[in-house]
Amino acid sequence: MTGAPVPTGRVVRLHFECHAELPIGSYLRVTGSSLWAPTAIGTPSDPMNAHHIAQERQQDAAFAGALDDADYWFSHPTNLYTSSVEMVTSPETYPRWRTKQPVIVVLHTTHSAIQHHYYRYLVVTPGASIEESSLVAATGNDALGGVSEVMMWEQPFGPITGPVVSTQSFGGKSMQSDEASHFLWNLTQLPYRTLDINVESAEVVSPAPEDRLDTWNFPEDASFRAYQIRESMSMSKNQQAAKLLQRSSQSTLSDDAMQDDDVQVTSAPLSGLSSKQELASNKNTAPKILFICFHLPVVVVKVQGQWQATWSESLLAQKEGSKIVSTYRAHWIGTVTPHPPIINEEDRQAVRNVLAELNCTPIFLNPSTRQAHYYGFCKQVLWPAFHNIDLLDLSTSSGVGTTGSTSGSSAGHAASDWDQSRLDHWWQAYQQVNQEFATVVNGLVDSDSSTYLWIHDYHLSLLPRCLNKEPARSCRKVFFLHIPFPTSQIFRELECGEDILTGMLHADVVGFHAFDHARHFLNAAKRILGLNYESLVGGLIGVNYLAKTVLVSMSNVSIEPKMAEAGLALPSVAQGAQDYKIKHGARQIICGVDIGQRLSGTSLKLLAFERLLRDYPSWQQKVVMVERVLVPGSRKTDEQLTLRELRALVQRIQEKFGPEVIDYQEVSGSNLPMDQRLALWKASDVLMLTPIREGLNHWPMEFIYAKDPESPGVVIASEFSAVCSILNGALRVNPFDIQMTITTIDKALSMDVQEREGRRYRDLDFVSNMPSDKWVRNVLRDLNDATAAAKASSKNNSSSATPTTPSFTPRRPKQQELLEGAGGFLLKESHASFTHLSSSTLKKAYDHCQNRVIVLDFNGTIVLKEPPGKYLKREILGTSGNKPPPEVIEALSLLCEDPKNTVYVNSGDSAENVLSALGQIPKLGLAVSNGANFSPPMTDQDSERRWQTFDLGVDWDAVKRVALPVLSKYTARSNGSFVKLTTFSIGWSYYSCDPEWGSLQASHLVLELENELKAFDVRFVTLKGIVEVVPRKLNKGLIVKKVLRDISRTHAEPTDFILCLGDDISDEKMFTSVFSFIAEMGDEARATPDPPVVDRDGTLENPPDWSTIQTRIKDPLYCYTCAVGKKPSHASFYVNDAQEVAKSLVLLAKGRQEESNPSWGDDSSHMFT
What we know:
Elements: E1 11-14, E2 17-19, E3 27-31, H1 50-60, H2 69-75, E4 84-88, E5 96-99, E6 103-106, E7 114-119, E8 121-126, E9 136-140, E10 148-153, E11 169-170, E12 173-174, H3 178-181, H4 183-188, E13 193-198, E14 203-206, E15 214-215, H5 225-247, H6 249-260, E16 262-264, E17 288-295, E18 298-303, E19 306-311, H7 323-327, E20 329-335, H8 345-356, E21 360-363, H9 367-386, H10 391-396, H11 422-442, E22 452-456, H12 463-466, E23 476-480, H13 488-491, H14 497-505, E24 509-512, H15 515-529, E25 533-536, E26 540-545, E27 548-554, H16 561-568, H17 571-584, E28 588-595, H18 602-615, E29 623-631, H19 636-657, E30 662-668, H20 674-683, E31 686-689, H21 699-706, E32 714-718, E33 731-733, H22 738-750, H23 753-769, H24 772-799, E34 807-809, H25 815-818, H26 821-833, E35 835-836, H27 839-848, E36 852-857, H28 886-897, E37 901-906, H29 911-918, E38 925-928, E39 933-935, E40 948-950, H30 956-973, E41 978-982, E42 985-989, H31 995-1012, E43 1018-1023, E44 1026-1031, H32 1036-1050, E45 1057-1062, H33 1068-1080, E46 1093-1095, E47 1118-1124, ...
Parallel strand pairs: 2-15, 17-20, 17-22, 20-21, 22-23, 23-24, 24-27, 28-29, 28-31, 29-30, 31-32, 32-33, 35-48, 36-37, 36-45, 37-38, 45-47, 47-48
Antiparallel strand pairs: 1-6, 2-5, 3-4, 3-8, 4-5, 7-13, 8-10, 9-10, 11-12, 13-14, 16-34, 18-19, 25-26, 26-27, 38-39, 39-40, 40-46, 41-42, 42-44, 43-44
Helix pairs in contact: 1-31, 9-11, 14-15, 17-20, 18-19, 18-22, 21-23, 27-34, 28-34, 30-31, 32-33
């Protein structure tokens, strides 16, 4: 021990005494270390408040966002004061009350000799009734038997007046009186008491010892003096503000009324969901499903005078072994494009007969009608509009808009062939084709409502409305859009836009591949048709239209693995890949297959490639771009201009850098044969697609599947594509940002095999396990949910005597109202007390102490947590994986070798991951699965780690059997989500989902799981990006308190240094457990015992007899509870990020700071800039 005690971090244990004459049954409490601490959220049965959060999100149909301080305390007002310490009395000492355990205060100030501690007393009366004359709040929980507690605070200076705040509800009990409407504002403005602590001596210096006994509700107490002084100083300012408020009160009130009377729409519960339909053994009695698409997914050819038909590669085609086909009577309806073209009725009938064997019904359109419908309205109007191309661009720039003349030619400025007068004819043809489809469909549906109608894509957007007559009217309908849906601003430019919207809304389910597209659809329905949408039970979104709720769904589909596997086995694939390798030698191959139209962004790709060769000359001899441009002929003018531009760019690049750098070919048709694609994927190192507008493209998924683990590839995807929000391992680019794009290309080409394989692995599970068959089943499940909900709603409405009216959400008090006066002062003081932890100060205290305990979180604390991007997609950090940097590993090893130290890492991760990262440090204690499993530090006599487990009294296998089917449903609906299983937790991660969709699904998942698991002693933890089911008794604080207790029991020296670091809400229990341990020191006999501990062999550990043990309290005692990142926390200090944690650990271990930053892989340095 060297030098004088360090003030910062020193612990002060305060006992309070108060004279209070209370009714029988009431008892006194005093607030803890901070009046504004966000303390134990919710109730004992829901400590993470998951149920409240989920209900609030469901009712408001709101998406998750960060709560600021005022929002947080508004939502949970009683949390301001429930972090309190019990006070006790006895017949001999009554009415004198004393804290049962001390209040723990950690010194933080470095700029003043005095630290102020603010506190309040409250009286708690279990089971009492609420009196209007008292400032009280009721807290209760039905799960605890309906018991409520009434808390009352001191008001020694009379009632507090302030602005009116809307009626609130506490613990489910609505407070309707006039005084209750002022409750929240009054709660923040209550008088507070003050103690002054000398920082150097760590002793209370004011009030004086003779004045330390407080008296309940007595205004003359010395501890109220600081409050009275501050109030008197601000009185003059408040009087002036009141005059200004009076002058403008009428206008302010009227403005508030207009701004804050928000309608709250609640949804009918999905009660009575239909069970799975039992099918009869006779196939003819099975439900019928009609897949209706403009292009039948077949290839029809005439060979030697005979018509033949086979299924195409389309995701809508029938697949071998399909469960849909075996469960339903599946039938396909659509047009065909035979080769050669049909010329007479005999050919038509022959094609009908051939397709009948495939359960397909072809529709033969009049050639002129087909031309106007498909090549006119669909390709010249809807296709560009749905891809967010403005009509002004259509009329001035050859039908698609330009991205500028990138080749230096005049191609981008060609005269437009747009003719507005053709729209009427095209629109009539569009309506006619949809009506012809309706006629065919009506002839094929069954007379009952058992038929499912699945309508695909924008060619048939009017069809759901055309099918609004019997017999198809009663059928269940799905409309799925496979291209983007535009913003409402673009969509409103279509004069037929309202008809298209109403046509789509006649379906029961409207499906999209990306949440962005669904959101645009919802906005268009609201802005054009005035329709509101609501959040439904089960995580779905509903649009109220024509007295029914139309479900809006978002789901994704991958490739067909069996088809891809068969293709990869073809000799032509291996030969084609070998040919590419021979042709281009040792050059790395960047491949791309694009439609030869402007929105494919191919010209931007070529520009970026040209800049790469110019700015990174080392790649000129090492890379080649293999580009295949498809020319479908559906947008001739667009294709002509685009191809002219691409040829000019290719020529320019080859003239500058040689013909070897680009392998460019144009291919007629809208698709490249599968064997040619697979050969290209196998030979290539990088797939680069840069569309500036695009729906779902399966080629990146096919590329991922085709690559081997030994030679994984990298996908570069445009952030404007739907696949960008699906693939978690892809590199994302903005094609218009050329510099960003060439940097990304360089990164992809330079990437090592480990990172390439890691990125591929992230997407391989989805790519391999979401074929069209599973996708169809998921969408049909949502359709069944929607139908059941509609029936339940109809039954409720028919039995109700009066219609249901929307409910209104009371307005929140404005933030400035909450933060005036005492409330605002205490909030500022709380912010000022939450200080940054200086590593040098920490080092001084560390050197001063003899028995040190260090507890560290894992992910986000000593392992860099991957930062969220635009879609909360995590980027893989090169070779960093899930391990701390080498500097941290070395520092932990050195700290563990010091006999004065006990070091633990407490993680929510699995034992396998933690052991892989830290298992090489034998003297490091490990706790995994949020502390459920733990391994003490190994001694020199140990040959292997000894693992122990808390017995928390939950049959976890039974919990899994109930929870996993629910989780699988939400996982299928939310791309990027996955289920994470550990020893004592079931997690549903939506961190990689679209942020709005994922958080919406999570809120409903909590409600559904709560209902399903109510028989089990479990709770729900809602963290950023994950919902966890854990035993109710489990939290990361259990192991922390056990470690501290064991050390205090077994070590000769009392603990005098505690460092605890964590980065998220699950780590808050570690911080509170540290304070709880410090409070119980010296009085362990009355402390709550730890849960039983079981060894791996099932042996129950003998608990210590704390009645015979009394630990000594060291003075000074240092406690550094530290949050990683500045946010509301129980911690006393914070550091900015994981890099600061690493630097501090290195300083403690080595006594000096490293000159360079810790290295989390090659690509992580930018995370801290």
